[in-house]
Amino acid sequence: MSSEYPIITWKELIKHFKRSSLWVVIEGMVYDVTTYLDKHPGGEEILRKCGAMDATEQFLEYNHSNYARSILISRVVGQLTNEPQPENYFQLLKQRIQRNPYKEITWEELASHNTKDDAWIVIKDDVYDVTEFLDHHPGGMKLLLDKAGDDASEVFQRINHSQKAYQIMCELQVGVIIGIKPSRKQKQVPYNYVLIIFIIIVFFLLVYLFLL
Ligand code: HEM
Ligand code: HEM
């Protein structure tokens, strides 16, 4: 049955937990139930909690009828990959669900999102999760990755991004940055100069006192 269906990876599945696109997995098949949510006799809420997850157990637990199964047929998206669920899948899903554009994020937290699999950047105090956008950025992945975990305001401003770019940013925002940006390594030279001058003064003072 299944080989004719596209294979859905975990990476693809995890994107569909939202009200605007909700997929669930039942017995290894992935279904798009977005437009069924408000029609579900068991209620919308219960289905939303299964977004981007394997809901087989819950589906069987409520002893759904053949009619319920017939509804599923027209909503098949594909077959879930045979690859095991990534270990941090629920953690990643939770992070996405908790996305809140006003969440306060420290510079320290920002700095921990600095890899290809988890890349956040700051542009003018707003924090964006660009992980999924890396492959799609018309300006290339590298420019974004270079700034992962860091402030990209300056480089961003150099390019005249379009309205479309700003719309994409709205969807990617995960919070706002708080606190003071840690400064780069302090230049030691001025302190060294002060110390040297201080030592010279003390030296000459001692010589002067000695000669008196
Ligand atoms: C994703 C595909 C699903 C479809 C198409 C579906 C469809 C239906 C349908 C048609 C009914 C009416 C009874 C029946 O004909 O079986 C029903 C009832 C119900 N469903 Fe689902 N369902 C789905 C998933 C789920 C899941 C994942 C849960 C639990 C987490 C759930 C919980 C319930 C409950 C609690 C009822 C009982 C409502 C009642 O008897 O008051 N459903 N569902
Ligand atoms: C979340 C942040 C970003 C989004 C959503 C975004 C989106 C886009 C989009 C949609 C375009 C196509 C042209 C347009 O519509 O404006 C573009 C082009 C470009 N972006 Fe970004 N961008 C982001 C961050 C950055 C950053 C940090 C840089 C760093 C320098 C950058 C550099 C570029 C460059 C160089 C182009 C031009 C590509 C070309 O015209 O050949 N972008 N970006």
Number of helices: 10
Catalogue the unreliable spans: none
Approximately how much helix is present in the residues? 25-40%
The count of β-strands is 12
Bound molecules: protoporphyrin IX containing FE
**Judging from the principal axes of the Cα atoms, what is the shape?**
elongated
Structural class: alpha/beta
CATH topology of the largest domain: Flavocytochrome B2, Chain A, domain 1
Mean pLDDT: 89
Strand content: 15-25%
Termini distance? 104 Å
CATH class of the largest domain: Alpha Beta
- Total count of domains: 2
Q: How is the main sheet built? A: 6 strands, mixed
CATH architecture of the largest domain: Roll
In short:
The protein contains 10 helices and 12 strands. With 212 residues, the protein is of the alpha/beta class.
Structure explained in plain terms:
The chain is α/β, with parallel strands linked by helices and 212 residues long. It folds into 2 domains: 2-91, Roll (Flavocytochrome B2, Chain A, domain 1), CATH 3.10.120; 99-178, Cytochrome b5-like heme/steroid binding domain (Flavocytochrome B2, Chain A, domain 1), CATH 3.10.120.10. Helix content is 39%, strand content 21%. The protein has helices at 10-13, 44-48, 56-61, 66-73, 89-97, 107-111, 141-146, 153-158, 163-172, 189-211; strands spanning 7-8, 17-18, 21-26, 29-32, 53-54, 76-80, 104-106, 114-115, 118-123, 126-129, 150-151, 173-178. Strand 3 (21-26) and strand 4 (29-32) form a beta hairpin. The mean pLDDT is 89. The site of one protoporphyrin IX containing FE (HEM) has 20 residues, from helix 7, helix 8 and helix 9. Residues 5-81, 102-178 form the Cytochrome b5 heme-binding domain. Pfam families: Cyt-b5. It comes from Paramecium pentaurelia. GO terms for molecular function: heme binding; metal ion binding.
